[in-house]
Amino acid sequence: IPGVGHKYYLQFTTEDYRSRENVGSCLATVLFEKGNSPPAVTINCVDSKDEKQIQEEDNKIYQKIKQQTKPIVANDIPDSYGNIEPAFEPVWALAVVGSSKIMWEKSTENLSYSMAQVKSAKQWIRQDDFIEFDYTVLLHEIPTQEMISCHLRVIWLPGHPQKVKYFCASENQWFEETSGMESGSAAGISQEKEENF
């Protein structure tokens, strides 16, 4: 679009990150405006799984995390051989979804990211039903091949959008996604935690 930027029309399928099975198809338009990031995205997807099945899978992940008697603390997911311990799969899944927010905001027409590893994960115990984690993740920057370290806080409850807050080593400020949640729904992110973060 002369004077504005480049607009792309995409048709693609989505896949389950573990099983690699096709779980839906999408149509999207992506507009990269000159000098602006992130891109403006309009997307429409049709899931091959029904909504009930998706909710059941979310609830399984949620229950695995909530059933822990001590806060979860983990390092190097996956390990140096590419393995993920079954107990840490829910922790990894939550980090993948949270990191997608960073990857979307930082990507440009010529630069993209994929999550390479969770360097560390720490669960915060909350008084409500939400799950909260602090992560340090490594993002693989393409085409530079650099590894970018980002600190990520994720708050989630099935049926609600994730609340994501992050800081990357190459930046000097926090970025926050309110995810359409009502005011006060992120209670529990205290000033003390941010100072320790």
TrEMBL record:
TM region(s), chain numbering: none
InterPro entries given in the database record: CYSTATIN_LXN, Cystatin_sf, Latexin
UniProt entry keywords in alphabetical sequence: Protease inhibitor, Repeat
GO CC entries: extracellular space
Record flagged with keyword Cytoplasm: no
Gene Ontology MF: a single term: metalloendopeptidase inhibitor activity
Signal peptide boundaries: none
Lineage top rank: taxon: Eukaryota
Domain Cystatin LXN-type: 1-53, 73-177
Family: Belongs to the protease inhibitor I47 (latexin) family.
Name this polypeptide is given: Ovocalyxin-32
Species of the source: Tinamus guttatus
Lineage, top ranks: Eukaryota, Metazoa, Chordata, Craniata, Vertebrata
